[in-house]
Write a structure and sequence with these properties.
By secondary structure, the protein is an alpha+beta fold. It has nine helices and twelve strands.
């Protein structure tokens, strides 16, 4: 053979060998990929299946196969339609959904109640998507189902618990209404009568006993009021009222209410109503009076000697109607330690617990005040020094009535 021809033949043989090797490598890689994909597919923790345009199952992963077996569907699904496998009503529904996905070429997710071949009823979320061939035409659907029966059970338990809680809330509200009538009414009667008897009594020792009885009844009444008001207010059923009222009269009325307590402790109770401060304003009289009543009540309670002063003045004005009302209650009492000043607005937080017998109370007053302050878009601030006294300052937006309002 000619030497040149032999060389050409050798080189061609080498090339063919290389191409064969390359082909073999590609085949191995391809098989590797297929194997990997299969493994991933069969490890998916959810049922996945696909069907052709006629609704015939063409594939499913292991999870789907196992799930079907576990619910009593022993026969092979591949090559069958839903009508071969499931009751007609369910199969009709599945086919209808498949056709819709094929037609609109969009993903479809639906909650389905399914009666399984073993008679068990489950709830599942069934998601389906169009399946495309290599030319980009729809050739079937691919779907996956997730069993949400347990989630649904938890959801219904939660719903039931919520309903029960709502019923309990209604019962609690009813109880509070009854308590209002059944406890508060006789208690205030008891306090009123003992107070009256005390005033009339001339015998010194009997008078003292009556004073103590009246004081105890008043404490109980205050405690009861705190709890009742707290429940009512915390239920959030108290709308903010903007009404014209006489602020000066309200402040004087509160001072009058608290005067007996101040007298008992020989504390001076003063009002400083600024000359420039309007007397008639528009605001929430209920909340304002409760804020002031609580602050003054506390000031007297936590003061052993000296004075409690209520100051009312006008703060910043926004226009000729809106301005900030500055309400201050200053006492010369025990003061609040610096580290406790941020905590006093928390409910049931008390400087000295009742069982120490020093000061009574439920620890709810300032928590209610704080809620009112926030509902009024207002601010509250405390400055205090132990053994020197405390000043609570509230800055509350209010407005002036129009002439004919
Ligand atoms: P209560 O008065 O029922 O204890 P409050 O919520 O009204 O509850 O007050 C919480 C705590 O804040 C009180 O227990 C007390 O320690 C402290 N406090 C409130 N006002 C004063 C005050 N004027 N002087 C000293 N301590 C006060």
């Amino acid at each position: 053979m000619d030497k040149d021809v032999k060389e050409i033949l050798d080189s061609l043989t080498r090339e063919i060998k290389e191409i064969r090797n390359e082909k073999e490598k590609l085949k191995n890689n391809y098989e590797d990929e297929i194997y990997k994909l299969n493994r991933i597919f069969n490890s998916l923790p959810a049922s996945v299946y696909w069907k052709d345009l006629d609704g015939v199952y063409r594939g499913q992963n292991k999870f789907s196969r196992d799930k079907m077996r576990s619910v009593g569907l022993e026969q092979e699904m591949i090559g069958k339609t839903d009508h071969d496998l499931f009751p007609k009503e369910a199969a009709d529904e599945y086919r209808k959904n498949d056709l819709e996905v094929i037609k609109i070429e969009r993903e479809f997710s639906k909650e389905e109640v399914v009666i399984l071949p073993n008679g068990e009823t489950i709830v599942q979320v069934s998601s389906k998507k169009p399946l495309y061939d290599k030319d980009g035409s729809v050739c079937g659907i691919i779907g996956n189902t997730v069993d949400i029966t347990e989630l649904k059970e938890i959801e219904s338990e939660l719903k039931e618990a919520k309903n029960k809680a709502e019923i309990a809330d209604i019962i609690k509200t009813d109880f509070i209404h009854n308590m209002e009538h059944d406890i508060r009414t006789p208690l205030s009667g008891l306090w009123g009568v003992t107070h009256l008897l005390e005033k009339k009594e001339t015998d010194k020792s009997k008078k003292e006993l009556l004073r103590q009885a009246a004081e105890a009844a008043k404490e109980l009444l205050d405690y009861c009021n705190d709890i009742l008001n707290f429940s009512k207010i915390k239920s959030g059923k108290l709308p903010v009222f903007e009404k014209k009222f006489d602020l000066k009269k309200m402040v004087e009325h509160i001072a009058k209410l608290e005067q007996p307590s101040a007298d008992t402790k020989k504390i001076k109770l003063q009002i400083d109503y600024a000359k420039k401060m309007p007397e008639i304003i528009i605001g929430d009289e209920f909340r304002l009076s409760k804020i002031l009543l609580n602050l003054v009540g506390n000031a007297i309670k936590f003061t052993q000697k000296g004075s409690v002063k209520i100051s009312v003045k006008q703060g910043k004005a926004f226009n000729n109607r809106h301005f900030i009302l500055i309400l201050t209650v200053k006492d010369t009492g025990i003061g609040i330690p610096a580290e406790k000043q941020d905590l006093i607005y928390e409910k049931f937080v008390r400087g000295t617990p009742s069982n120490k017998g020093l000061f009574n109370g439920a620890g709810l007053g300032l928590n209610i005040i704080k809620q009112f302050i926030s509902e009024l878009d207002a601010d509250i601030d405390v400055t205090s020094k132990e053994e020197s006294g405390t000043v609570f300052t509230c800055s509350i937006p209010v407005k002036l009535p129009l002439l004919n309002e």
